[in-house]
Amino acid sequence: GIEGVLEAYHRSLRSVQLYGPTNFAPVVNHVARAAAAVLDGSQYFVLLIITDGVISDMAQTKEAIVNVS
């Protein structure tokens, strides 16, 4: 549930070091492929993106999010 997502977020803040370049499109596509492989609906996937605000592949990331949504 949402509590688990928030817990994972808070835990990751203590251990993540942000640096660039930041390319999210490959990550979005990878998670989408993993989610698509679960055909029976028994699982759900949450992709939490933590960034310093600088996304190197913004156009590709936007396109990936639109394509997989």
From TrEMBL:
- Classification via Pfam families: Copine (PF07002)
Gene Ontology cellular-component annotations? plasma membrane
- GO MF annotation, one: calcium-dependent phospholipid binding
> In this protein, which residues make up the domain named Copine C-terminal?
1-69
Q: Could you tell me the Gene Ontology terms of the biological process aspect for this record? A: cellular response to calcium ion
Q: Which InterPro entries match?
A: Copine (IPR045052), Copine_C (IPR010734), vWFA_dom_sf (IPR036465)
**PANTHER family assigned to the protein according to its UniProt record, in alphabetical order:** COPINE, COPINE-5
Protein name per the record? CPNE8 protein
Species of the source: Psophia crepitans (common trumpeter)
